[in-house]
């Protein structure tokens, strides 16, 4: 008789909840400081004011989608200046490469939003349910009125934090006090409520429940970081030549196998197993191990920041190279130079950019018109953008290889008034006198200009004048 086929083994394992233990030390203090600063920046920035004059938004940082502009204190970026935003994104990428090459996943361990909000949610969890052992007991016990009450308080607090997070985000896209009033009176637009709801839900789930799963499975950076790191990168590591063999008896190394490093790890790994994809370089295991070394009278540094290139020297008992020699090396200097160069170029572009933007489109149907006196006229659609916060009357001019007359539709003096922070379109006519070289040639280069008499700001744009021979 043939035995029934066995079910294939599952390739998936149920998630084991991680309950990191509270730890104190210099790296934990640094993480608290970074969390406080980043959260303060995120929640406070939309409420900062910046006077830009009448009829202009006074929010210091504002992504004004309605008018397609981005305000950052004294800087105003228009849609056609998106290269500045692109440059900032490139700088952000190079900065991430630089810090990863020098110090491993320091971004992930200290400033990544997932890390910051997870730390905040864990802080709330400890306040309500207790430290690691108490939370483990609570997790394993069945549901009771006490457990339900603690979970309700914790989840409600998480939900409030998540709602504040989503609410703070939408304040960056409209006037914060106005939107806050509209939210309070339930008169905010549906898109605001929908955005807050989505961000509230994602923050609540990612920070409260998914936690390390986002870092391990959802985030692509752990799989990219290896290309940014080399043997000179300083990263958190276990000095096995000091710690092995583990134990407390005679002949044992410095590691007493207390598992303190494991119990504080937010991703639940054992750093003593070597470098792992799950490690976010938060350095909490360093604080935990140093505390145990102090209690047992052993020197600190069993777990610490370590470069693989120093392993041989440390095994031999000699001092490793200084931190600065690891940080300031050709690879990081190239990243820093590129990062600084792009920053200088962006700063120069912001400083040197004109307050006038000029564009022109020749009217092609027809290319030219022959008037009754024999002169030849071309028409153009001129678009003039005033980036200043007050109306400006610009004088329109033309530069050509011969004599040519300029006229602006609806204007008698060849000047146009552009409202503040707006773009104005006007039809412009160039007319070449009968018998002139411009009237008879096929296509001649000309340049249209716009000048602000008050500030002497000037913009130029090249185009083409078509004569009769253009046929």
Topology record:
Elements: H1 26-44, E1 61-64, E2 69-72, E3 75-77, H2 82-103, H3 106-110, H4 113-129, H5 132-140, H6 145-170, H7 176-184, H8 190-210, H9 212-218, H10 221-228, E4 235-238, H11 240-243, H12 260-264, H13 284-296, E5 303-306, H14 311-315, H15 323-327, H16 330-352, E6 356-362, E7 369-370, E8 376-386, E9 392-399, E10 405-408, E11 415-418, E12 422-432, H17 437-440, E13 443-451, E14 458-466
Antiparallel strand pairs: 1-2, 2-3, 4-5, 6-8, 7-8, 8-12, 9-11, 9-13, 10-12, 13-14
Pfam family, one: Fer4_18
Keywords: 4Fe-4S, Electron transport, Iron, Iron-sulfur, Membrane, Metal-binding, Transmembrane, Transmembrane helix, Transport
Protein name: Cytochrome c oxidase accessory protein CcoG
Give a verbal description of the structure.
There is one protein chain. This protein is an alpha+beta fold and 471 residues long. It has 3 domains: 26-228, no CATH class; 234-321, no CATH class; 356-466, Immunoglobulin-like. 43% of the residues lie in helices and 18% in strands. The strands form 4 sheets. Strands 6, 7, 8, 10 and 12 form a 5-stranded antiparallel sheet that branches. Strand 1 and strand 2 (69-72) form a beta hairpin. Helix 2 runs antiparallel to helix 16 (330-352). The longest helix is centred in the middle third of the chain and has 26 residues, at 145-170. The protein is elongated, with a radius of gyration of 33 Å. The model has no long low-confidence stretch (mean pLDDT 91). Residues 245-274 form the 4Fe-4S ferredoxin-type domain. This is Cytochrome c oxidase accessory protein CcoG.
């Amino acid at each position: 008789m043939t035995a029934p086929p066995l079910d294939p083994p599952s390739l998936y394992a149920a998630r084991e909840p991680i309950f990191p233990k509270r730890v104190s030390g210099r790296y934990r203090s640094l993480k608290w400081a970074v969390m406080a600063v980043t959260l303060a920046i995120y929640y406070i920035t939309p409420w900062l004011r910046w006077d830009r004059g009448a009829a202009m938004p006074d929010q210091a940082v504002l992504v004004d989608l309605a008018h397609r502009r981005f305000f950052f204190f004294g800087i105003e970026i228009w849609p056609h200046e998106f290269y500045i935003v692109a440059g900032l994104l490139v700088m952000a990428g190079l900065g991430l490469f630089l810090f990863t090459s020098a110090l491993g996943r320091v971004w992930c361990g200290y400033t990544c939003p997932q890390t910051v909000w997870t730390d905040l949610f864990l802080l709330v969890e400890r306040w309500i349910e207790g430290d690691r052992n108490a939370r483990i007991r609570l997790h394993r016990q069945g549901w009771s009125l006490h457990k339900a009450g603690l979970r309700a308080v914790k989840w409600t607090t998480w939900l409030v934090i998540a709602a504040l997070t989503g609410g703070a985000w939408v304040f960056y896209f409209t006037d914060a006090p106005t939107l806050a009033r509209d939210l309070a009176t339930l008169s905010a637009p549906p898109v605001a409520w929908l955005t807050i709801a989505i961000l509230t839900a994602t923050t609540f789930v990612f920070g409260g429940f998914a936690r390390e799963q986002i870092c391990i499975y959802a985030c692509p950076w752990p799989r990219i970081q290896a290309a940014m790191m080399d043997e000179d990168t300083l990263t958190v590591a276990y000095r096995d030549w000091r710690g092995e063999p583990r134990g407390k008896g005679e002949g044992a190394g410095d590691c007493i196998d207390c598992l303190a490093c494991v119990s504080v790890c937010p991703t639940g790994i054992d750093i003593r197993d070597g470098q792992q994809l799950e490690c976010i370089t938060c350095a909490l295991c360093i604080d935990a191990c140093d505390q145990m070394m102090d209690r047992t009278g052993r020197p600190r540094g069993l777990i610490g920041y370590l470069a693989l290139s120093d392993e041989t020297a440390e095994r031999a008992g000699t001092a490793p190279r200084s931190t600065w020699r690891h940080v300031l090396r050709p690879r990081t200097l190239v990243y820093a130079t590129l990062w600084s160069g792009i920053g200088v170029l962006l700063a120069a572009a912001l400083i040197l950019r004109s307050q006038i933007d000029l564009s022109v489109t020749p009217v092609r149907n027809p290319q030219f018109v022959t008037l009754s006196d024999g002169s030849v006229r071309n028409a153009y659609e001129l678009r003039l953008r005033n980036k200043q916060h007050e109306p400006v009357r610009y004088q329109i001019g033309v530069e050509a290889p011969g004599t040519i007359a300029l006229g602006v539709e609806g204007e008698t003096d060849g000047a146009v008034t552009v409202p503040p922070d707006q773009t104005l379109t006007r039809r412009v006519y160039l007319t070449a006198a009968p018998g002139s070289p411009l009237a008879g040639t096929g296509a001649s280069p000309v340049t249209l200009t716009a000048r602000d008499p008050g500030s002497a700001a000037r913009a130029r744009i090249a185009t083409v004048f078509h004569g009769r021979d253009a046929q």
